[in-house]
Design goal:
The complex is a heterotrimer of chains A (274), B (284) and C (432). Chain A has 274 residues and is mainly α. Chain A is 73% helix and 0% strand. Chain A contains 11 helices and no strands. Classes of the chains: A mainly alpha (274), B mainly alpha (284), C alpha+beta (432).
């Protein structure tokens, strides 16, 4: 039974890794490899030129910076606002109907298909003077990360016993102080995990980035990657190089916060029933 | 009063960001997009007479159901497999990272890599299948309706089955050991253990996963755009691609708004259905 | 005596005015000119000549690059605000109807007295004029007086390529099929033809020259949709059955990248081509196995006897919001002059002047220049002059692609395209 399991897993791993292998090797191939039939499985020669050409030659470092700013901004605001919603409904006395209604409504935000709201948002953004500015992306990525962030925070908050805070309150601390000195330290790993997942989900966003930005001043990484599909040519190797860079950033984050991420993914939904 | 005071500012902001687009779309949809004159329900009536819109609705339905079914079944099975067979900590870490990779690859890149791999004549998939003796003529992955749908689905499954896996796996780990042991003592084997002990724990999580995967597959856009562009014909032209075309190629913002409201209605119905179950499961 | 006096007066006046024309008073030099351009290979030649301009005139030209779809949208946004963001721009020629009817550009003839140059193909001037001098004119534009708003910078035109080591130059579609029959051998593999058949713009660029050469049209002179005709069905049948038979499997999802790969690896013998693909791939020795083996010629003629290459120029123009219009005009004159077109071409640009395209030395270096000159003289066909073209292209591009993939019959594809295009044009106010 176990050996069968391991074999199945190994096979699946191969299937799963193969496209990734193809991406990374595509990124180190010279252009000539794309003009052979069939595509050689191994690169005919390994070159790092696509990386330098796309990151420095095409100034994709700027886009990387933009992506980092937009996603980190969304993470910070998403968690702060998510906390503003999750904290009261889990720690303060509210009617259950209110709690359920609010949480469900937040979740329903995720049901708004971007294509439905992109034109009105474009209009708002233009009126605010945020067209082609990173601020607009921070705003929208925050909004779209809220369902996830709120639900995760809610799960974590439910896990922290109410008594911990109450003890502090009895000692004469204000609720605000109790929140910052008692609850928040308890939640630190959870916040980290929520941050990583929120970040990873905002990282690949395409449609808003595509429509609300115009220049490298504010374009995010995926938009730059898409621009390598030009009218007459696809710059395969540089595109794959950019894709590899794009995947590495969140992977590093995951390695850094892996233990907490796995817990975060249960949304607290399981433990609460246990 | 405090809970309401804390909740109010973000909720009002969010409400504004939801209501404004709604009103905006309603206003647009009742007017002619060039002249601005009031045309009543003309744009809605037009949708009923638009075969391409229904084609895109159908294609989206096919896509969402296949993607959801495959991702959930595969993800759950994989989670069980890993949970039961892999014990060592580092091996589990390796598996997380491995399956995290597809999730964080930008869909546009995933689409282009898939286009390289699926390409007939050149692509590695046909070459591999031929070498294994499974095919003797080229499969035209991207230029026949059925296989093109398979190709765009496969990218989605590659990217997002891991999400289901990671969530389910995390859920399985949080099933209390004593409950599992007790069931074991009662003689529960693999399937019964899953059906009667683990699944009840996972149910609410699976509901959430269904919600997130539904919303994401319903809005699919990026990788399809580079992989098939909606072709061949209109066979992979999903709702968001079709709406994109109406809004940004035809510049018919009024018709796009009318269709948007349709899409929103579909999304609301789906949410109402899913939300009810979810409310039962998670809402205490 | 009196007569002599009059003659002298006239001569004097002529001299005065001509010197006035020859050395116009230029306003003081601006610090720099800002130019909106598309990101990609189209600006290779431009980047090669900018240092020369700066050396000669002492005015910097700053390029702001946008990806293709963003450029159009960015320009429209700037124009609507009448902003002084840009002094110059390059525009894809199907954008001219929108820019022309909104009168966003500075007319070059009435403002600066531009004089036409016989070395430049008339089609270039036709393309830069609004309302269009031939073909149907959009209903709201009919009464307007015609001006020249833009001059070509990138002389893109679609023409035909063939393996000159294997087959003779085909002048007609029958010859193309004969050539294909002669060399087609899928087991080698060598395909007789290759189609860039992907949905949307790619397949429409491939099909339009076939359609027109068969005598089919999308619109008549009053924008009535006349696509649903025997000629159009014949053209599509030929395209989706006959040409496809000699093409590699799966061309219904081929874009330029895939087509160029088939040609460059020597697996396909004939097909359409745009200049940018030749310099980047087909004649690029680092990736291509067919360098020197390709012949280039005019798009084949159809049963109607007509050659119908497709034009796709990038045009230089000055937005009305610019504060440095006079110097921007100076740049256009300079960049399109015969003197500058040579370094422009040698730097990788696509030239458009007769004297450069027909120059024997240049043809040695760029073997496709002659075919380009022939195509520009044909004259090439343009996309119908309407700001609704992108919608028409999206509709036609879906159904022609479906026919190529075998999902729709040619009859169905043509009939559906025609009725959807008509529905769209009605909505856009073309019929009253």
């Amino acid at each position: 039974m176990r050996t069968v399991g391991v074999v199945v897993l190994a096979l699946l791993a191969v299937v799963y890794l193969f496209p990734f292998y193809w991406m990374v090797t595509t990124a180190v191939r010279p252009l000539a490899d794309f003009y052979q039939f069939p595509a050689p499985i191994f690169p005919s020669e390994v070159t790092l030129e696509p990386f330098s050409s796309v990151m420095i030659g095409r100034q994709f470092v700027t886009l990387l910076r933009n992506s980092l700013i937009a996603c980190l901004g969304a993470v910070v605001f998403g968690i702060a606002i998510g906390m503003l919603i999750a904290y009261p409904v889990t720690r303060l006395p509210v009617p259950p109907a209110f709690r359920r209604g609010l949480l469900n409504w937040i979740l329903s935000l995720r049901f708004l298909p971007p294509i439905v709201v992109v034109i009105p948002f474009f209009d708002i953004i233009r009126r605010l003077g945020l067209y082609d500015a990173l601020g607009s992306l921070v705003l929208l990525y925050t909004v779209f990360s809220l369902p996830f962030a709120t639900w995760m925070l809610r799960g974590f908050l439910l896990e922290v016993p109410l008594e911990i805070e109450e003890a502090a309150l009895i000692d004469g601390a204000s609720r605000l102080r109790a929140f910052f000195t008692v609850l928040l330290p308890q939640l630190a790993p959870a916040l980290l995990a929520t941050a990583v997942i929120t970040f990873a989900l905002a990282w690949s966003e395409f449609m808003f980035g595509f429509i609300l930005t115009a220049t490298q001043r504010s374009q995010t990484f995926p938009i730059g990657v898409a621009s390598l599909v030009t009218q007459f040519q696809i710059i395969w190797n540089e595109m794959a190089a950019a894709g590899t860079v794009a995947a590495i950033v969140p992977i590093l984050l995951l390695l850094f916060a892996r233990r907490y991420v796995v817990t975060a993914l249960t949304f607290g939904a399981v433990r609460e029933k246990a | 009063m405090t809970p309401y005071l804390l909740v109010a500012p973000p909720v009002l902001l969010l409400a504004a960001l939801v209501i404004y687009p709604l009103v905006y779309n309603v206003v647009l949809s009742l007017r002619n997009y060039r002249t601005g004159e009031f045309v009543g329900l003309h744009n809605f009536a037009r949708a009923f007479d638009d075969p391409l819109f229904f084609a895109s609705l159908r294609a989206t339905g096919v896509y969402v159901s296949w993607a959801l079914a495959t991702e959930i079944l595969l993800g759950l099975a994989l989670a069980l497999l890993v949970h039961r067979t892999i014990r060592s900590g580092w091996a589990r870490t390796l598996i997380y990272v491995l399956f995290f990779i597809p999730m964080v690859t930008p869909p546009v890149v995933a689409g282009v890599i898939a286009r390289l791999m699926y390409s007939p004549n050149y692509g590695v998939i046909n070459v591999a299948l031929a070498k294994l003796g499974l095919i003797d003529t080229e499969i035209l992955w991207l230029s026949e309706p059925g296989t093109a749908m398979f190709a765009v689905l496969s990218v989605d499954v590659w990217q997002w089955m891991p999400f289901v896996f990671l969530v389910c796996f995390a859920g399985l780990q949080s099933v209390p050991m004593d409950t599992v042991e007790a069931a074991r003592v009662d003689g529960a084997g693999g399937w019964r253990l899953f059906r009667h002990v683990e699944l009840p724990y996972l149910r609410s999580l699976l509901m959430l996963v269904v919600v997130f995967r539904f919303t994401d597959t319903f809005r699919v856009f990026d990788h399809v755009q580079v992989l098939t562009g909606g072709g061949p014909g209109a066979s992979t032209e999903f709702l968001s691609l079709y709406l994109y075309r109406i809004a940004f190629k035809f510049f018919n913002l009024s018709y796009a708004a009318a269709l948007s409201l349709f899409v929103l209605a579909v999304a609301s119905v789906a949410f109402a259905v899913l939300g009810r179950y979810l409310g039962k499961e998670v809402g205490e | 005596m009196r007569r002599t006096w009059l003659v002298w007066l006239v001569v004097g006046l002529l001299l005065l005015t001509s010197t006035g024309l020859a050395a116009p008073q230029l306003p003081p030099k601006p610090a720099e000119l800002t130019m909106a351009v598309v990101a990609g290979g189209e600006t290779k030649g431009l980047k090669a000549i900018l240092p020369i301009w700066q050396r000669e005139k002492g005015v910097r030209v700053k390029l702001v690059e946008f990806p293709y779809p963003a450029l159009y949208e960015k320009l429209v946004t700037a124009f609507q605000a009448n902003a002084a963001t840009f002094d110059l721009l390059i525009a894809d020629d199907p954008w001219m109807p929108k820019f022309g009817s909104e009168q966003w550009l500075v007319p070059l003839d009435s403002t600066f007295g531009y004089v036409r140059d016989p070395d430049i193909f008339p089609v270039v001037y036709d393309l830069g004029s609004w309302p269009p001098p031939r073909g149907p004119v959009p209903p709201d534009e009919r009464g307007k007086s015609r001006h020249l708003y833009a001059i070509t910078l990138v002389g893109n035109v679609e023409f035909f390529m063939y393996r000159k080591d294997l087959v003779p130059a085909p002048a007609s579609w029958n010859a193309v099929i004969a050539n294909a029959k002669k060399v087609h051998n899928p087991s080698r593999p060598l395909y007789g033809y290759v189609i860039r058949g992907a949905k949307g713009n790619p397949v429409v660029s491939e099909f339009t020259p076939v359609l027109l050469s068969y005598g089919g049209r999308i619109f008549d002179d009053n924008w009535k949709v006349v696509l649903n005709s025997k000629q159009a069905v014949d053209a599509l049948t030929f395209f989706a059955k006959e040409l496809k038979r000699y093409s590699p499997p799966g061309v219904a999802n081929y874009d330029a990248a895939e087509r160029a790969r088939e040609i460059a690896t020597g697996r396909a013998a004939q097909g359409f081509i745009w200049p940018a693909e030749i310099t980047d791939i087909v004649e690029n020795p680092s990736v291509s196995k067919v360098v020197g083996k390709m012949g280039y010629t005019l798009a084949p003629r159809g049963p109607g006897g007509k050659h119908a290459p497709l034009i796709g120029n990038w045009l230089l123009a000055i937005p009305k919001g610019s504060k440095n219009q006079r110097w921007a005009y100076e740049f256009i004159l300079w960049a399109t002059s015969a003197k500058v077109q040579r370094p422009y071409a040698e730097g990788g640009g696509i030239p458009f002047r007769r004297s450069v395209l027909l120059n024997p030395a240049m043809n040695k270096k760029f073997p496709f220049f002659k075919a380009m000159a022939d195509s520009l003289a044909a004259p090439p066909e343009w996309r119908p002059r309407t700001d609704q073209w992108f919608a028409v292209e999206a509709i036609l591009g879906t159904h022609v692609n479906a026919a190529l993939a075998g999902i729709e019959t040619p009859q169905q594809a043509i009939a559906r395209s025609a009725s959807e295009i008509e529905k769209h044009m009605r909505e856009a106010g073309y019929y009253r």
